[in-house]
Amino acid sequence: MNRRTIGYMMASLLISFSFLLVGFKPKSIEPIELYRVYLDGKSVGLTRSKEELEQYIDERQEALKEKYKVDKIYAPKDLVIEKEMTYDRNILSTKQIYNRIDKISPFTIKGYRYFIEGAVLENDSTKHTTPDETIYVLEKKVFEESVDKTVRAFVGDDAYDRYLNETQPEIKNTGKIIENVEIKNKISYREQNIPVNETIYTNVEDLSRYLLFGTTKDQAKYTVQAGDSIEDVAFNNKISTEEFLIANPNFQDANSLLFEGQEVTLGILQPKFQTLESDHIVELQENRYKTEIRYDFNMFLGSEQVLQEGQNGLTKITKKVQKSNGDVLTSVISESQELRPTIDKIIVRGGRSSWSVGTPSGDWLWPTIVPYTINSPFGYRWGTLHDGVDIGGCGYGSPIFASNSGVIVQSSEKWDNGQYITIDHGNGYYTLYAHLSARYVGVGQQVKQGDVIGAMGQSGFATGTHLHFSIWNGFPYRGGSQVLNPMTLF
After folding, report:
1. pLDDT tens digits for range 168-187
2. Which of 58, 203, 314, 410 could form a disulfide with 340 if both were Cys (CB 3.0 to 4.6 A apart)?
């Protein structure tokens, strides 16, 4: 044989021998019982004892046990430990397995997962969409008591207790009966192991604060200055008086007195669910008299005579009101009874034979019929300024009056205001009337105080039939203009 032939023979023998070795297990190596650890479907490694691993996990979590006041800490919810017969001798210690798990997925404790389905929180002027919310608690009573406390913040403790206990007094003259309280959002829960890297609520105070304000952090503080009122402090810090009272439950109402140096809490509400309250209300409403100006050419210029003194009227109204987190959604007057008629004041002035159209008077006229309801006052809501007053209860299509004499400068439609009208009163003041169902005037037209310019409606972004009425110093929404609280002029 030549060398090349011998080489081929040796190579063939080596290849054959290698094939014989494949799958060969010496008799001294036998498969052994181990435990393979999987996390999220992927192998973490092999260990000798499942019980030893679980015990080690438990022992290493003493700090978590102390924090949450629990007796046991559990492995991650996606951790699987399976028995396996294997020849693999790459065995990890309990500590090595634990460290690998800890880097990949957190450990868990037993508790409850609550799911709050998102909803649109709205009133007549503001819309706020809340996302789906997941809340983790150790005990069901923490969530239940927190929800109860949050509802009470909007409804009021005493009123809610009387509603729940069915002890609301009968309305004899005026008063309110709560007909229904419910949470609009769908809430579900289940018991499960909760990862310890999640926010887990263990007390009612923290969770209640989160459900109201969207955070567990302490709210901003303000030191009361001399002359401050609750309304002033709230407005200057861009919150509503209702938000102020919720953040400071020690005050009974917006008329409660503040004292200099007193520290109060400021908080913008970001509620995580919508509390709907339906009320039956009977109340007295004072109707402000109008002042009619007449001119007598035979009287001296600048002279004035009161022909008839004015008297405010009084009406007893019954209304159905639905509130969302304390703000009025809808208000419908079901019954009204005039207790005292309104008598207009009549003044006769000299020096002019007639009242010039377009010249504003010193008095402003209420822009709707009476009786009416105030659905949403001027002020801040959820950190946003509601730049007018929402007037409801008059009915769809009811007349809207020019609050003062002037010239129509806008009669149009927008997505938010719906159908709206703006009047220039010639003295720097403008009035805006929004959410109308009809407009009866056009741009350039002159109107007198009390002229019917439109009809109440629900156009644009509006919840329920109402008029959004605002007064501006300067053209509305233009640079340099300033919005005023309409109620200061009536």
Report:
1. 999 999 999 999 999 999 99
2. 314
pTM of the predicted protein model = 0.77
Q: How far apart are CA 365 and CA 167, in angstroms?
A: 42
Encoded tokens for 315? 């009406």
- The answer to whether the CB of 85 falls within 8 A of the CB of 121 is no
Judge whether residue 6 has pLDDT over 80.
no
For residue 337, pLDDT over 90 is answered with: yes
Q: Compute CA 229 distance to the chain's CA centroid, rounded to the nearest angstrom.
A: 25
Across the beta sheet with 304-308, the strand order is 291-296, 345-350, 304-308
Q: Tell me: pLDDT of 210 over 80.
A: yes
User: CA-to-CA distance for 149 and 141, rounded, in angstroms?
Assistant: 12
Q: Is 82 helix (H, G, I), strand (E, B) or coil?
A: strand
Average pLDDT over the chain, rounded to whole?
A: 88
Q: Which residues contact 307 (CB under 8 A, 6 or more apart)?
A: 294, 346, 347, 348
Using a pLDDT cut of 90, give the percent of the chain over it. 59
- Determine the Cα–Cα distance for residues 53 and 98; give it in Å rounded to an integer: 7
Contact, 246 vs 291, CB < 8 A?
no
C-alpha span between 39 and 477 (Å, rounded):
58
Per-position b or e across 220-252, b if 16+ CB within 10 A of its CB: eebebeeebebbebbbebbbbbbbbbbbbeebe
Closest-CA residue to 265 (of 168, 408, 153): 153
Q: Is 201 left (phi over 0), alpha (psi -120 to 50) or beta?
A: beta
Beta bridge partners of 200: 136
Q: What is the Cα–Cα distance from 429 to 363, expressed in whole angstroms?
A: 13
**Mean pLDDT to the nearest integer, 133-146:** 97
> Do 385 and 379 meet the contact criterion of CB atoms below 8 Å apart?
yes
User: In what helix (H) or strand (E) does residue 414 lie, and over which residues does it extend?
Assistant: strand 406-414
- Nearby residues of 21 by Cβ (< 8 Å), 6 or more positions away: none
**Residue 4 pLDDT greater than 60, yes or no:** no
Cα gap 65→11, rounded to integer Å: 66
Q: Give CA–CA dist 349/356, Å, rounded.
A: 13
Sequence-distant (≥ 6) Cβ neighbours of residue 4 within 8 angstroms: none
What sign does the CA torsion over 206, 211, 216, 222 have? negative
DSSP string, 84-98: EEE----BPPHHHHH
Q: Please tell me the distance from the alpha carbon of residue 485 to that of residue 489, in angstroms, as a whole number.
A: 8
